[in-house]
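Sample intake sheet
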Amino acid sequence: MKNIKYSIKVIGVIFVILLITLIIGLFSPTWTPHIKGKNSISVLEQVKINGSNHEIMIRGKDRDNPVIIFVHGGPGCPEIPYADKYQDLLENKFTVVNYDQRASGKSYHFFEDYSNLSSDLLVKDLLAMTDYISKRLGKEKVILIGHSYGTYIATQAAYKAPEKYKAYIGIGQMSNTVESETDSLNYSINQAKKVGNKEDVSYLQGLTEKIKNGDTFTPRNYVMKYGGDSRLIDNPDGDNVGMLFSSEYNLLDVIRYNYGLAYSQQTLLKEVLKNPLPNIVTKLKIPCYFVMGKYDYMTSSNAAKKYFDKIEDNQKEFISFEKSAHYPQYEEKEKFYKWMSDTFIK
């Protein structure tokens, strides 16, 4: 009987410890590491933009430096949990703003109505965010960077309000979605053939008709399996453990991340298939740069180049990073930092 009572007490203590750990994990404070310097800035906070609370992170050694607004991909894949790890060089000469888009990451609120979520709304959010950041940091214009799905939003913002931006940079630029997905499929099939994985070859070949008809995407787990997502780093998106070990996200934020990811992808990806960027934007009035990893098959570099060639712009440049896939700004961050400095720091 004593042993039973003792066991019950032990179980009770373990339960209490686990409960306390869970509560701490859910509600522990979050922050972004401090940057030394009299005029530095390093903030992580919620601000109301276009009627919805958005999480923003602003980092830089001198707030007077040129400002970058970074639009994350996915949809629903915020980069705040790992951005400062890779943008540390950029922070020397630029003030970098990352934000979790509406219904994504820390900007996902469980009791908010997202039934009106659309790319048009995300573009309006970005334009309002630009106004807020420009006013807060005292800038007439900022540099706009979109990554992956973020380029779908940022390209439209640059087209609609060129007066707000110094330049547009598309990293992992979206283009003709069917062309891009066909490239992704063929790449994955060819890589599967090289390693003799007949099962993968058979499955992927079975998707050919649907992908060429614009009915679906090449499954990203296969693109990732065969190196079409990242080469020099581990793919940072969706790394729940990594998020938990960041100072910017706690357990509740990771839960929100996954809810937002599922909802955003279900809601927004159909539009990308049915209304690709070349149908929306064919002309820009600000300097335009596509920065593409040579091995990018999440958003095909080949399809991006075809789109780039069709864009009317007085100043445009296509830059290929020869060692990277979908994350050239992180995989070759030294090269990206040098290019940014040479291009925008006079």
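Comment: Strands lie at 41-49, 52-60, 67-71, 95-99, 142-147, 165-171, 288-293, 316-321. The mean pLDDT is 93.
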